[in-house]
Design brief:
This protein is α/β, with parallel strands linked by helices. It is built from 8 helices and 11 strands. It has 2 domains: about 120 residues, 3-Layer(aba) Sandwich (Rossmann fold); about 90 residues, Orthogonal Bundle (Arc Repressor Mutant, subunit A). It has a 5-stranded parallel beta sheet with strand order 2-1-3-4-5, sandwiched between helices. Strand 1, helix 1 and strand 2 form a beta-alpha-beta unit. The mean pLDDT is about 85. This is Transcriptional regulatory protein CutR. It holds the Pfam family Response_reg.
Length: about 220
């Protein structure tokens, strides 16, 4: 099943980290933020990330050491390394220790998003560019969804949940799976967050109803 892109952003500049994380969330990604290398390794050990955006020049534990540890442990996440140094030698070093991609600062935000999506695709099963069920169409790349030709105005979380349900191709998706893949680590598993989002999504999709509740299993289209 398709996973919403889950990102760990490791950046010691707190204001930059907040700004970048907010932008990635608007793109429909689930983003966790840590400010140092030690916290990065702790989070990576307990959470399932698709991409780790790693600042190289971290205090305490250097980004190079974080990358080496991730590679040696066999962590499946792709690593996009950020650094203020844009020299060829620095890029060669970063890639040589196991980073999958390299982006010098300052960077264009659109390029960062494109690189994260490209890295995430390497570890996910390829899906049709547009997900379709009857008169419902969802285009993940364009971030658009329509039903019977009518544009659906969805929040990022509503879009993410609908994408997960369509990608499941008729299989039930549990509330726990939706919470894990569409929200970040601070989502409370005991809240009604998923139920509320499903309810809003049903209203926006209209009639006839498309989302079915499967007792003790979750939801499906």
């Amino acid at each position: 099943m398709l996973k919403i892109v889950r990102v760990l952003l490791v950046e010691d500049h707190e204001e930059l980290a907040r700004t970048v994380a907010a932008g990635l969330r608007r793109e429909g990604m689930a983003v966790d933020v840590v400010l140092d290398g030690h916290a990065a390794l702790v989070n990576a050990a307990v959470n399932d990330y698709d991409v780790i955006v790693l600042d190289r020049d971290l205090p305490g534990l250097h980004g190079d050491e974080v990358c080496r540890s991730l590679v040696q442990s066999g962590h499946p996440a792709r690593v996009l390394m950020l650094t203020a140094a844009g020299a060829i030698d620095d890029r060669v070093t970063g890639l040589g220790i196991g980073a999958d991609d390299y982006l010098p600062k300052p960077f264009a935000y659109a390029e960062l998003v494109a690189r994260i999506r490209a890295l995430a695709r390497r570890s996910q099963r390829a899906l049709r560019p547009v997900l379709v069920h009857d008169d419902l169409r969802l285009d993940p790349a364009a971030r658009t969804a329509t039903r019977a030709g009518r544009r659906l105005l969805l929040s990022p979380k509503e879009f993410a949940v609908l994408e997960l349900l369509l990608a499941a191709e008729g299989a039930a998706v549990s509330a726990e799976e939706l919470l894990e893949h569409a929200w970040d680590e601070f989502a409370d598993p005991f809240t009604q967050t998923v139920k509320v989002t499903i309810s809003r999504l049903r209203r926006k999709l209209g009639d006839p109803p498309l989302i079915e509740t499967v007792p003790q299993a979750g939801y499906r289209i």
